[in-house]
Amino acid sequence: MRVESDRSAPFGAGLDARGLRVAVIAAEFNAALVEQMLAGARAAWSRAGGAPEALTEWRVPGAFELPLASRQAALSGRHDAVVAFGCVIRGDTPHFDYVCAESARGLMQAGLDSGLPVIFGVLTVETVAQAEERADPARLDKGGEAVAAAITLARTLAAIREGRSA
Question: Residue 49: how many CB atoms within 10 A of its CB?
Fold first, then answer.
């Protein structure tokens, strides 16, 4: 069963990115789709009041390499959150399963190791059409959603550390 979300307001409306620093690690594989997610991420960051220079971007070859670079960015002490972007489309071999599982596991571990939000912005889809729909900022905007999640979780963790409610 598919549940439709309430999109009466733009996703992430009311978020405040002012003063936050976010690292973006983006895979070069399926670059056209990843670039669409990056466009959505940049737009969401701007809407939330994030300073352009506070959104730092790096590239890695593919989704399998995202965890290591994300962990390094998270442990650097220069960021409040990390967002990892990639796109893995199922093919004819089990390669898809290994890359998706290890990317997800590694990104979760990077967050746990660092204590920072490390957001899983990796599309894991069956078809190019599914990837296009999810990557497009004018459609499902998974790039914008990932940045909104990073902002939300960075603020929540700061509130927890400071002993106040978010």
Answer: 13
- Whether this model's pTM surpasses 0.85: yes
The residues that are catalytic are 95
In the chain, where are the structural domains located?
A: 22-162
Express each pLDDT in 18-66 by its tens digit. Answer: 999 999 999 999 999 999 999 999 999 999 999 999 999 999 999 999 9
Please tell me the distance from the alpha carbon of residue 63 to that of residue 86, in angstroms, as a whole number: 5
Burial of 162 (C-beta count, 10 Å sphere; 0-12/13-18/19+): exposed
Q: What is the dihedral of CA 130, 133, 136, 141, to 10 degrees?
A: -100
CATH number listed for the domain at residues 22-162: 3.40.50.960
Extract the tokens encoding 157. 């963790």
Given 3-state DSSP classes, what are the helix, strand and coil percentages for the chain, each rounded to the nearest 5?
Answer: 50, 15, 35
